[in-house]
Design brief:
19% helix, single chain, alpha+beta, five-stranded antiparallel beta sheet
């Protein structure tokens, strides 16, 4: 009986030690909303590194979609600065995805949201 109790205790200890690590390894990253200031900004999110080079402030959203890919949404934040600043700044925005070694966006920052899915095959559309 004593041997059986020890064996069950050992199995319970192993179960309590391994189950939390398995659950934690399968968690998805929480959605991220952030403002980007003009200049160069690097963001690391869900094992993806994005480098933003912009002349205008941006508002970005990053989230993991159910397929396991990351979706980047962004727009110009100049309209958030107030009526006096809206339209006063203009310039090129470049977004570089380091893992794919690819430029995913290079144009003027839009006033509306732009969605870019980032997957293992690179980006699909903008």
């Amino acid at each position: 009986m004593n041997l059986c109790v020890r064996a069950i205790s050992a199995l319970l200890i192993i179960a309590f030690l391994t189950v939390p690590s398995v659950v934690a390894s399968e968690q998805m990253a929480a959605p991220l909303e952030r403002g980007i200031h003009p200049g160069v900004t690097t963001i690391f999110y869900a094992n993806h590194t994005l480098v933003f080079t912009t002349a205008v402030p941006l508002k970005i959203k990053l989230r993991v979609v159910p397929t396991g890919h990351v979706e980047l949404s962004f727009r110009s934040a100049s309209r958030d600065l107030g009526e006096g600043m809206a339209g006063a700044v203009a310039g090129q925005t470049v977004i570089f995805w380091e893992e794919a070694n690819e430029e995913v966006y290079s144009d003027f920052a839009p006033d509306g949201w732009v969605d870019i899915p980032l997957g293992e095959g690179g980006w699909t559309e903008k």
